[in-house]
């Protein structure tokens, strides 16, 4: 049963800005997928990192490969996307920017175009069913696939930016950070930016990316994912910190993901502390709520208990995230209004 403190975090209206679709699949949905494809011999323990468990980042990427085998048709994507949206809504998320890498699967006839259309269909159906959440989509580029695929993905994202009635808002750069170099993807990212897609880039998720981060920060991105190794105490540099601060680029912080993926040794050593203390824009996110067995309420609660945040401070954190969304101004105003209406009820 929820204690009173748990309840505060659940009721707190929240904004989720960093959620990978296939990393966000809940254990319930995973059960269904595993049953649908018994021939794959996949066990639940292969798709999630449970309480107290840790994995290397490399092992996390193996987990995504397994999940991709389970989610490989339009039918799967529609089911998974609808479930993920409903789960975020049930957790009190009022605005969600979901991201996913379009995939092509010959055996099931899935194309990248249909992949995106299917996610958009899931978003449309949730809206029609009046699920209490506003959902936007960020098209993801997997850095592992190199510059040509990145450029193709940008073109696809650009088409949808123009035709999705405001649902597609941006481009993400993700995938195994130890593979490839950002300099090869720079022209694709520049093109994306020039056509009006917002950029949410995974940056300095591992220590070896200083040079790449210097380069990508010149774009500049509209938001940074993780940014774990940007600051000098973690092997980054003053110049990186200066760039991020001068351009006031919000950082998406995913505490449990970083601890379970072992890029951060423990919650209390998380770089959230460094940036939050400086008053820099920070937004708490889940990254992969399915794989890391968490949800956004829990991430807020963990941040509060680890760093001693008051309920008022937690409220501010969730409210300020509205300003870091890629939503147009009228949507931001609508969210601000919602927060203002709920404040008296929830914050005692
Ligand atoms: C843990 N830290 C992380 N760092 C970098 N990329 C990550 C990630 N977590 C997830 N992804 C990216 O998201 C994909 C799965 O969702 P989609 O198939 O796109 O919906 C992964 O294959 C990887 O490219
Ligand atoms: Zn991520």
UniProtKB/TrEMBL annotation:
<keyword id="KW-0862">Zinc</keyword>
<dbReference type="GO" id="GO:0046872">
    <property type="term" value="F:metal ion binding"/>
</dbReference>
<keyword id="KW-0479">Metal-binding</keyword>
<dbReference type="InterPro" id="IPR001365">
    <property type="entry name" value="A_deaminase_dom"/>
</dbReference>
<comment type="subunit">
    <text>Monomer.</text>
</comment>
<dbReference type="GO" id="GO:0004000">
    <property type="term" value="F:adenosine deaminase activity"/>
</dbReference>
<feature type="domain" description="Adenosine deaminase">
    <location>
        <begin position="13"/>
        <end position="338"/>
    </location>
</feature>
<dbReference type="GO" id="GO:0046103">
    <property type="term" value="P:inosine biosynthetic process"/>
</dbReference>
<dbReference type="GO" id="GO:0009117">
    <property type="term" value="P:nucleotide metabolic process"/>
</dbReference>
<dbReference type="InterPro" id="IPR032466">
    <property type="entry name" value="Metal_Hydrolase"/>
</dbReference>
<comment type="similarity">
    <text>Belongs to the metallo-dependent hydrolases superfamily. Adenosine and AMP deaminases family.</text>
</comment>
<dbReference type="GO" id="GO:0006154">
    <property type="term" value="P:adenosine catabolic process"/>
</dbReference>
<dbReference type="Pfam" id="PF00962">
    <property type="entry name" value="A_deaminase"/>
</dbReference>
<dbReference type="InterPro" id="IPR006330">
    <property type="entry name" value="Ado/ade_deaminase"/>
</dbReference>
<protein>
    <recommendedName>
        <fullName>Adenosine deaminase domain-containing protein</fullName>
    </recommendedName>
</protein>
<keyword id="KW-0546">Nucleotide metabolism</keyword>
<keyword id="KW-0378">Hydrolase</keyword>
